[in-house]
Amino acid sequence: MRGISEEQIDHITAQELKEMHRRLNLYRGNRPFPEIRDRTVILVDDGIATGVTARAAIQSIRRQKPNRIILAVPVAPPETVTKLGAQVDEVVCIITPPDMRAISLWYDNFQQTTDEEVIALLDCSWGKKRIGKPGKE
Hints:
By secondary structure, the protein is of the alpha/beta class.
């Protein structure tokens, strides 16, 4: 597999799982997972290249039996939109460049969202505070 050993794959997988659990605990805390059975779920991504992550998210959501899944993304290659479209009820994609090389090329600013920004946005969505600059109430 392109010069990557099973041991390296296992190591990277373990690291990513550890990071996933860290973020889940930090972002969700003791809040329950939202009830999505029989609801419409809008899955939003800032851009999709291969669709691997989106497919995993769709499969996870589908197991919880929502009424509909809508995938909303500003930019993705046409073939990826077609493949993902077969797995959801609707895809909303603004730009489908046939020669897409990187999502970041379609943004003026593609900086990573910090943990603090994510927590502030989640707190706002849970009605705890207003959105503003992190640390500003």
